[in-house]
Design a protein that fits this description.
Structural class: alpha+beta
CATH superfamily of the largest domain: Cupredoxins -  blue copper proteins
Strand order of the largest sheet: 3-2-1-5-8
Low-confidence stretches: 1-14, 312-325
Order of helices and strands: HHHEEEEEEEEEEHHHEEHH
Strand content: 15-25%
Mean pLDDT: 81
Helix content: 25-40%
Radius of gyration: 28 Å
Distance between the termini: 64 Å
CATH class of the largest domain: Mainly Beta
CATH topology of the largest domain: Immunoglobulin-like
Number of domains: 3
Length: about 325
């Protein structure tokens, strides 16, 4: 068994670990492997012992079998149940840690499409199949797909997240070491699925800031999209159409017809834009058209990012709560 444990440690040591979440995942996998090897080794040893001891022609005593082994069976069931529940609780904690990004995490939008990763940095700079991030900073990715199901997979970070069309999902990590790490799509997505690869470039905050400033971001692109798609004509002060104002919308509670409220998070903003007739705001006529199939995923992410920047201070004191444009 000692040789097997050494081999296990060597395998795990050969896998690069470059995020704050990775060590916890490795410890859980190692514990599962060690436990499995102990159980399998014990059963193998017992089988070999009985095979040799009670082989045909041996002089080992063969008393009549006992009719009941309640104590042994109960102990085995109780013991394995406790071990199982322990691993379940351990895995559940890791899962919840991966699902709950720290407050104030740095947000980057990612659009998956056949067969590339389209990445939108917060200042508007775009990357394709290459994601630059600062180390030591919690990064929250907002992922969506423009066509089919993809899967964002970074082995060095021990992270994998399916990306579904028509839905925005989030994934967070904290890179701990500078370097370049492989990025894959791990869900078959078409004839060029194997070519849908990329890299994550983790660097010091200073180098990342210099890289980000050295690009050519499209300043105010979210505002341009807000005007281009006609949102400003209805949702700004002074508009002739009576529609909800959007300043301070993100994170607020929006009243819905029939009573009750819904929280205006990224998923709500997306749904309210694409399926407006299903997300009417109490007190307003459902006049807004659906933008399903009209706004590309990249534009939609930038429009949502712009709506999130509209602070409550921009809303008149008498302005009602609102919905997305």
């Amino acid at each position: 068994m000692t040789g097997r444990f050494a081999l296990t440690r060597g395998i795990l040591a050969g896998l690069e670990s470059a995020s704050s979440l990775a060590p916890g995942v490795d410890r859980l996998i190692l514990a599962l492997l060690v436990t499995s090897l102990l159980v399998a080794g014990t059963l193998l040893a017992l089988n070999l012992c009985f095979i040799v001891r009670y082989r045909r022609g041996s002089s080992a005593p063969r008393p009549p079998p006992r009719s009941s082994s309640t104590v042994v069976e109960a102990a085995w069931i109780a013991g394995t149940t406790v071990v199982f529940l322990g691993f379940f609780a351990w895995g559940a904690k890791l899962y919840l840690d991966e699902e709950r990004p720290p407050a104030g995490a740095y947000e980057i939008a990612v659009v998956a499409r056949q067969w590339m990763w389209d990445i939108h940095q917060p200042n508007g700079r775009r990357e394709f199949n290459e994601l630059h991030v600062p180390i030591g900073t919690p990064i929250r990715l907002l992922l969506t797909s423009e066509d089919v199901i993809h899967s964002f997979y970074v082995p060095a970070f021990r992270l994998k997240q399916d990306v579904v069309p028509g839905k925005t999902v989030s994934l967070w990590f904290d890179a701990t070491k500078a370097g370049t790490y492989a990025l894959y799509c791990s869900e078959f997505c078409g004839s060029k699925h194997a070519a849908m690869t990329g890299v994550i470039v983790a660097e010091t905050p200073e180098r990342y800031a210099a890289w980000l400033a050295g690009g050519a971001p499209e300043e105010g692109r979210g505002r341009q999209l807000f005007t281009r798609y006609g949102c400003a004509g209805c949702h700004e002060p002074g508009a002739t159409v009576r529609a909800p104002l959007l300043a301070g919308l993100y994170g607020s509670r929006v009243p819905v017809p029939g009573g009750g409220f819904i929280r205006a998070d990224e998923a709500y903003l997306r749904d309210a834009i694409l399926r407006a007739n299903q997300f009417a705001v109490a007190g307003y006529q459902p006049l807004m058209p659906s933008f399903q199939g009209v706004i590309p995923e990249g534009d939609l992410l930038e429009l949502i990012a712009y709506l999130k920047t509209l602070g409550a201070a921009e809303r008149p004191a008498s302005g009602p709560g609102g919905a997305a444009p």
